[in-house]
Design a protein that fits this description.
Layout: H1 11-39, H2 50-55, H3 57-87, H4 91-112, H5 127-150
Helix pairs in contact: 1-3, 1-4, 3-4, 3-5, 4-5
Pfam family, one: MAPEG
Protein name: Membrane-associated proteins in eicosanoid and glutathione metabolism
Subcellular location: Membrane
Length: about 150
């Protein structure tokens, strides 16, 4: 049975915000590759071993870059889902929160790749968590409205 989907005004901004996550991931992938080469860590080794990390600042920075990237990959399904669910009723909020999350992830990564994991949130990376919370609230509210409308 065919169906027509009408998206709310402002949906293009949601698309732009979601697209920005691709550039975030591409940037993080590039950073990890550069840090891997600088540390001399060969594939398929996922992380530098503790002894490698202790012997080389570059190995420590590689581990931090790799962890920042993996943490983003762990969170991205939640971001996609919550952004889309929020956008059903609140596209501008969804786009702004997703874009803010991306900015937070950039700051998180920049802090993390200093080689000191404590810096991952010290340089503004925490704003990504605030944006993610906003998306959670927006998606719960949106789903509640959808359920309520179907009753």
């Amino acid at each position: 049975m065919p169906a027509t989907i009408t998206v709310p005004e402002g949906w293009a901004w949601v698309g732009a915000a979601l697209l920005s996550t691709q550039f975030l991931l591409l940037g993080q992938t590039t950073i990890v590759g550069r840090r891997r080469r600088a540390a001399g860590i060969q594939y398929p080794q996922l992380y530098a071993e503790k002894a490698q990390e202790e012997a080389s600042k570059e190995a420590k920075i590689f581990n931090c870059a790799q962890r920042a990237h993996q943490n983003t990959l762990e969170n991205i399904p939640v971001i996609y889902t919550s952004t889309l669910l929020t956008a059903v009723y609140y596209p501008t909020i969804a786009a702004a929160a997703c874009g803010t999350w991306v900015l937070g992830r950039i700051l998180y990564t920049r802090g993390y790749i200093t080689g000191d994991p404590a810096n991952r949130n010290a340089k503004g990376g925490f704003i990504g968590s605030i944006a993610q919370l906003a998306l959670l609230i927006g998606s719960v509210t949106g789903v509640y409205k959808m359920i309520q409308a179907s009753l």
